[in-house]
Amino acid sequence: MERTERNRNSIIFTGLIVGLFVLFSGCSYFQSRTKNGTPSPKPGKTGPSPLYYDFEDVLVPGELKINRNSSFVYRTPGFSSGILSLKGRVEIESLIAFFKNNMAKDNWRAVSSFKSLRSIMMFHKENRWCVISITEKQFSTYVEIWVVPAIQEVEQGSETKLLK
Question: Which of 17, 69, 108, 115 can bridge 103 by disulfide, Cβ–Cβ 3.0-4.6 Å?
């Protein structure tokens, strides 16, 4: 009888130790959260670094991963153009701010933009155009970056020839 009571006490003691361990580790999980339930940033820990993929002057946030099956890039010496298709979990507002700031740093001039379910940003450089399309879906954000050469000197009245 005394032996079963000792076994029961040791089981209870072990259960209490395990319960306290779970309780304290659970509390530390909740302490790293902000008031709205999102994880608070850890000091010194930053996200992935931005990268230049196939276009040497279009910086892309590190959180976006390239989709090679939906991308096409044409390269010649000193020039590349095409479409980069990317996907990630990034808010549209932060992407728009990122591209606006970094495209200017790479000497792109903002020409036009609009925000809707599909936001578009247009940039121009001496011999190229860049169009950035951002679409937010339920679980991911999709970005397409189009870089194309600019048409040089269009003669007056030749626009109609181009359309025919």
Answer: 108
